[in-house]
Amino acid sequence: MSPTRPSSQHIVRFEEMLPLLERSKMEGLARFLHNFVKLKSRKKLLPLHPMLGLALRSLLPNAPSETVAVTSLALCYAGVREGSAWQELAKTIASGPHSFSPRALAELAWSFSEVRYAHQGVFATLLRKMDGVKQMANDQERSVFCWASGNLGFNCSQIFGPPTANVDPQLAQSLFQRLSALGQQQLGRIRRIHSYASSSVQQALPPDVCAELIRKADQEGLWQNSTVVGGSRQVVMNNIRTSATATFNLPHHEEDELLYGIRSWAAQLLGLPTDFVEPLQIARYSCGQEYKRHFDWRSANFNGIWIFGQRVATILVYLKTLPAGAGGETEFNQLNLQVTPVEGTAAIWPNASQPNIPS
What we know:
Layout: H1 26-43, H2 48-59, H3 65-77, H4 84-95, H5 102-114, H6 120-133, H7 139-151, H8 157-160, H9 169-184, E1 190-194, E2 198-201, H10 207-219, E3 223-225, E4 228-230, E5 233-235, E6 244-247, H11 250-255, H12 257-270, E7 281-284, H13 305-308, E8 313-317, E9 330-332, E10 337-339, E11 346-350
Antiparallel strand pairs: 1-2, 2-11, 3-6, 4-5, 6-7, 8-11, 9-10
Helix pairs in contact: 1-3, 2-4, 3-5, 4-6, 5-6, 5-7
């Protein structure tokens, strides 16, 4: 028997992709690919990935480097995660005479990282090409490229040097002044618990907000085994951290007024821009679970430093009150200090050293 052929009205002409391969029309290309995926599944077309590969084999070799980069982004956004399309992109990057800009290289590195395409030859080529144009790369392009490469184990230190884990002295000084001011206020709701170590904000969040955060995490099924930064990646380390964690990623914050409000409150409390505040996380500890002694600052080998920078401070809000003797305290080992969870109370501390800046 011969294979079943799709009817003519269901055949997609890949020449239609050509006018879509422009940065201003990337959304159109992504929609085109996404609809083709759906069309393939509904009309039982020939396998999608080989067809995309054949199309890109003819389109990409003569395409501008910016087009190659935009195609990789569109494949990601359309949900094309594997197959010959990515192989053709890799061949084009390796063999094409294109002069890639830092932006295009950053977009390509991000795309291959997103689909976990860790072929040695692809990133060897991307690293070599970025080394040739690194003087033209801005901070964002450099950060995205190094972060994406590092996600798959390719080190960019030989090109840009190691990322800095240090905190700007002026920022650190401002942070310590802010914490000092919190501790000196006589408002009845703020209690200083240690000089320059941390402050405790009473009723930082009202009970209904605490309950709503837990409800959101439960309802959306966000709970996962807690991770610890190990080397350059997030890994589960059951001998160090045994809790569960729910993370509200940035789209949650953009769409949810409550999450955005809490993030804005944290920024105002410390006098920092809102985009300095990480996505909110909730940690849930069952009986016997723990997070052993650790530091909240990031070492220079943490790959996320390239994108997020150093974690300058921590605000820990307790969402439930534990009865006396139940355990669950947050312990600051070097200060011989324990903080007992009380619903709505926030413990705040810096993760940077206080700089010695002359007045």
